[in-house]
Amino acid sequence: MKDLLEMGKLSLSQQPFSFFMQTEFESAEKGNVVLSLKIKEEYKQNFGAIHGGVIGYMADIGLAYAAASEVGDCVTSELKINYIRPGTGTKIIVRAHSISVSSRQVVSESKVFSLDETKENPEEVLVAVALGTINRVIDTKRG
Q1: What is d(CA 72, CA 68) in angstroms, rounded to the nearest whole number?
Q2: Rounded percentage of the chain residues whose pLDDT exceeds 90
Q3: Phi-psi region of 89 (alpha: psi -120 to 50; beta: other; left: phi over 0)
Q4: Domain boundaries, the chain
Q5: Are 100 and 109 in contact (CB under 8 A)?
Q6: What is the average pLDDT across 111-123?
Q7: Average pLDDT, integer, range 63-77
């Protein structure tokens, strides 16, 4: 079986939206993933903060990949996100983990951080927390 990190990188490269966004896998272990995204001007809203949709996307993809590391192919069926503060900086990092795993679904949590790599001592700042239910995709052709 391939390494989870390599599988995640391959999967990201095959998703048109994630490829477009240039999302990167940082690490992957069973039940735990870290992904990142370098911020472009196009990802910001009119006040200069990172757009909430970009933060929501990162929260969702973290939830789904944490679940996928447990059960394989899956899709998000429910997502709840708390935006804590505006995201600023040069990069977003999502750290996600599985909370509960069953044969058909996984409950996962994502924490989204912003990071300003231009600072001398950059620190991750928590900008959002998400909780989601991720359903395993069952191949109905095989039964």
Answers
A1: 4
A2: 85
A3: left
A4: 4-136
A5: no
A6: 95
A7: 95
